[in-house]
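target protein:
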Amino acid sequence: MSEASKESLTEQRAVNFDTTAFADQVCTDGDQVIIVSGEIDLSTAPKLWEALALLIERGHREVVLDLGGVEFIDSQGIAVLARAHQRLAPEGGAVVVRAPREQARKVFEISGLASLIRLED
């Protein structure tokens, strides 16, 4: 995809962040779904937080993360999702995680995050 096409797509989706700095890919779909692939770890979690924070600041009360392409998530990724939950919950909002792979699902369950966020297959 050309840079001009990426820029145009970003403008249409109303979320603007540098996708090249994330592990493999972060983009938006419908202005509130964040599609993530690769690994969410110490080096990529801050970029994911930027994307989530932007949606939250723009008034979205439900943010959806499609983690179908995520191969690994560590404690930094869990911290980002917990932080998003803390920002959304007081306003009646929610974090929804779609299609987490088994490793991510186990991490959510072990950490207790599964009781705070909504997991969808």
Notes: The two ends are 29 Å apart (CA to CA).
